[in-house]
Amino acid sequence: MPAAGRRGPRLSQEACIVGAVPESENPAGAPRPTPGRRHRMIPGAAVVVAFVLTAIAAWPAATESLGAAAGAIGATGTTGQTRATGQTGTTGTTGQTGTTGTTGTTGQTGTTGERGTSELYRVVGCRSRGSSAYTHGPSVREVAVGFDDGPWTDTAAFVTMLERSHARATFFMIGRQVNRSYRATLLRELRNGDVLGDHTFTHPFLTKTADVRGQLAETIGVIHSLTGYAACVFRPPYGAYDQSILQTARSLGLATVLWNVDPSDYLQPGTSTIVDRVLEQVRPGSIIISHDGGGPRAQTLAAYPTIFSRLRSEGYRIVTIPELLGFRDVYVPCIRLCDGIGVRRAAVPKGALIERAP
How far apart are CA 150 and CA 128, in angstroms? Predict the structure, then answer.
């Protein structure tokens, strides 16, 4: 073998011609390659060629070393290729891009498709405003009716009457009467576009009651626990209120609502009398008070189909109190069962607020 550190003969430019060897190493009479067939060689290849030529020069002694070196080079190259193929080809391309990418795309497409085509929304309340008590709405040809003192044995019949009349109303409820036996009726009201309002928990004179907040908050709570709806309007029993009551109601998200049309239907004056009193008093933007609970209400129930028909013939629209006052309904996506009141996005009322589900 050559002594350590000894360099092989330098290659001239012509030596880079394929098959060329240095003059000193060319045996006498050996055929020489045809000049002019030049090939550009990469640096690594030139090193390998030099190594091989040096080995040929010392062929007898270098055969064993050359074989070992070639084996080492071959092993290194093979191992490197295997490692690259295994990691990049198998793990990187197939595992990460193929598996993860496909799963991610499928999941996103599925979720987006479900939200875009099948997600339902349900009403959960409204956004009220105002620090004063409302007795009427703006002077437009719209009228709103508020039925008090339910839920009651006659309430379901009132809901049916509204359905047949294609009208909507606001139901001001007494909290202690709100129980599971009325749940289906209350959900039916919400499905029809009616509004659930607060009429205190025990129907007291609030101006003589120490716990006004409790009367209002407890009623909000029982309505919400049964229906998922948060009341946003409140009517004080007997119309009794003061500035402190208004502030308490406002702090709970409630607008205080009174009336400017009162047929005194709770006295049961007769169906025709109820009809006449309402039509005589009504004005554009009126809020009417009547009762679905607190006693027999057959006369009131019979009066309203005629009232609605006559009002419409005079150009009035029948709306809910929040709609009359310009309050916006609040809807959220149904993340659980919609209790039969869920609607498609296209059916959510124009102007309603859509919020994230809690």
Answer: 22
State the fold for domain 121-354: TIM Barrel (3.20.20)
Residues that are catalytic = 148, 291
Say whether pLDDT at 190 is over 70. yes
Helix intervals (H) in 263-335: 271-281, 298-313, 321-324
What is residue 57's predicted lDDT score, i.e. its pLDDT? 52
DSSP state of 198: E
Structure tokens at 149: 């003192």
pLDDT, mean of residues 344-349: 91
Task: Provide the CB-side half-sphere exposure for 341 (13 A, CA).
Answer: 22
Q: What percent of the chain has pLDDT over 90?
A: 63
Q: For 177, which DSSP code?
A: G
Output the pLDDT for position 118: 64
**What is the residue type of 317?**
R
Instruction: Give the SS3 label for residue 3.
Output: coil
pTM over 0.85: no
Q: Are 193 and 320 in contact (CB under 8 A)?
A: yes
pLDDT-based confidence at residue 334 (cuts at 50, 70, 90): confident
Neighbours of 263 (CB within 10 A): 24
The full set of domain ranges for the chain reads 14-57, 121-354
Place of tokens 């289906």: 184
Closest CA to 322 of 57, 110, 130: 130
